[in-house]
Design brief:
About 55% of the residues lie in helices and about 15% in strands. By secondary structure, the protein is of the alpha/beta class. The chain has 4 domains: about 140 residues, Conserved hypothetical protein from pyrococcus furiosus pfu- 392566-001, ParB domain, CATH 3.90.1530; about 55 residues, no CATH class; about 90 residues, no CATH class; about 130 residues, no CATH class. The protein starts with 5 loop residues before the first strand and ends with a helix.
Length: about 500
């Protein structure tokens, strides 16, 4: 196609009309209006004939509006003919507006969607706008989903957050929860997403186990949470777990899955418990527990030295204790899930060219209270986390000095980033390894400092982290007598030195 003709003309402002613009708000700011009053429009807007004797603005909506606000009656404008394709108009508008003042997520979604309507492929959009293809795909996916697009417009959520709503489009309950969290804007969106994703993985895993169980046993018991739970004694009074059974010829050898599968008295159930999952994280996971509905009829005997079945009274006590353990395990799972999002935030923080101005204060606090000055003597966990956050590869976790030295030699300006990563790793362990059975007072001060600082830097605390922070912020009262006694002991010690 031939290059469109262009000419510079003086055009009355009253003859200008607003054309398609990706930026919803083209209102000029005071600085631009004052500049136009003083010097006129330095870069003429681009317009095209509208077929009605006037001109439609293609580029420069804010400049034209600034001229009107400044009291001008006419402006110079570059007039182009209609050969300029609409998709080129959109491409130029997106590029220009992003360069001058970043588009909002809503404007970007609208702009990409309009390009797609002109049959511009995602690959072409990415190439011509200079953005990654996966980002274009994300924008278009959000644009095509009514709830995701509405969430951006209504709640101002990030594009990646809106993409999560698309991800859960087949789960109305999850979408509703995400919309509610987005509307509340309480910083927990990413934590809710992590939980929903874990729940989805668990649900798919349970569905797979259900299919397996249905093909292996004659009787499927209801799914339970916790292997301590028994089965209905009215319906199955003789049911016993196979781990407590054996064959008469080998009473000391417990049964396995292969001994019971497809047998007439075989049974099983799905048990969900808090445990280490296949991906290495901690949380709720499911396994199959195999039973026998009638050991005697199946020709089986109790396993020698096996733990006996509990009486009803003992089962009640065991259930109460199990409920306590379940409550703690639930908190531990919630904390582990929060840790995934917390660590992602820290990795993003450490990747920034400039750290928060008060980062050095946290490093100093950690040196005084946590002892990171002895970094090489720290525990394996803190060291491994630090290297992982900074992307430092190493072959041997016990000999990390060389890769760290190389990292700092190659990136001398990253020394502060390394120090902050080490400080945060030390502090993070206090939270990540928190034992809900026994919380030591000595761990509460660093936890408070750590979580409050992350929150100040923009991290949204999960509910479990808020609960821990509230606990850590409840300072114990200082025992004045104990302080006097300690000071007196110090004075006595100084006297002996003299």
């Amino acid at each position: 196609m031939a290059k469109p003709s262009r000419q510079l003309l003086e055009i009355p402002i009253s003859s200008l009309t607003v054309g398609l613009n990706v930026r919803e708000d083209a209102t000029p700011d005071k600085e631009l209006i004052d500049s136009v009053k003083a010097s006129g429009i330095l870069q003429p807007p681009t317009v095209t004939p509208n077929g009605e004797g006037g001109y439609e603005i293609v580029f420069g909506h804010r400049r034209a509006n600034a001229a009107a606000a400044a009291g001008l009656t006419a402006i110079d404008a570059i007039v182009i003919d209609r050969e300029l394709a609409e998709e080129q108009r959109l491409l130029d508008q997106i590029t220009e507006n992003d360069r001058r003042s970043s588009l909002t997520e809503l404007e970007r979604v609208g702009g990409y969607q309009n390009l797609a309507l002109f049959n511009v492929s995602p690959a072409q959009i990415a190439k011509r706008l200079g953005v990654k293809r996966d980002r274009v795909d994300t924008v278009l996916a959000v644009a095509s989903n009514e709830k995701a697009a509405h969430a951006i417009a209504e709640y101002g959520i990030r594009l990646d957050q809106a993409a999560v709503i698309v991800e859960f489009a087949d789960d109305p309950k999850a979408v509703k929860e995400l919309e509610t969290v987005a509307a509340n804007n309480n910083g927990t969106f990413d934590h809710v997403v992590q939980r929903l994703r874990s729940d989805r993985v668990l649900k798919a895993h349970i569905a797979e186990l259900e299919r397996t169980l249905a093909s292996e046993v004659f009787t499927v018991f209801p799914k339970v949470n916790g292997s301590w739970a028994g089965v209905s004694t009215e319906e199955f009074p003789n049911a016993v777990r196979i781990r407590a059974l054996a064959r008469p010829a080998s009473p000391t050898v417990g049964l396995t899955r292969t001994d019971i599968v497809a047998q007439p008295h075989s049974a099983g159930r799905i048990v969900t418990e808090h445990q280490s999952r296949p991906d290495g994280t901690y949380g709720q996971w499911a396994t199959i527990e195999y039973w026998c509905t009638d050991p005697e009829a199946a020709g089986l005997v109790p396993l020698a030295n096996a733990t006996r079945e509990l009486t009803p009274e003992e089962q009640e006590i065991a259930a109460a204790r199990a409920a306590e353990r379940e409550a703690i395990a639930t908190k531990t799972t919630a904390l582990a899930e929060a840790g995934i999002i917390r660590h992602s935030f820290i990795v993003e923080l450490l990747a920034r060219p400039a750290l928060p101005t008060d980062a050095i204060n946290l490093i100093a606090w950690a040196i005084v209270h946590e002892g990171i000055s002895d970094y090489s003597d720290n525990g394996y966990s803190a060291r491994a986390i630090t290297l992982e956050w900074l992307g430092i590869t190493h072959d041997d976790d016990r000999h990390f000095e060389k890769p760290v030295t190389n990292y700092l030699n190659d990136r001398p300006k990253q020394a502060l980033h390394f120090a902050l990563a080490a400080a945060l790793a030390d502090l993070d362990i206090n939270v990540a390894h928190l034992n809900f059975n026994y919380i030591r007072d000595s761990s509460l001060a660093p936890i408070r400092v750590y979580l409050e600082q992350l929150r100040a830097w923009g991290y949204g605390l999960a509910d479990i982290e808020k609960e821990i922070l509230a606990l850590a912020s409840a300072e114990p009262e200082i025992d004045a007598d104990a302080v006097d006694e300690a000071e007196s002991s110090d004075d006595d010690a100084e006297g002996e030195d003299d």
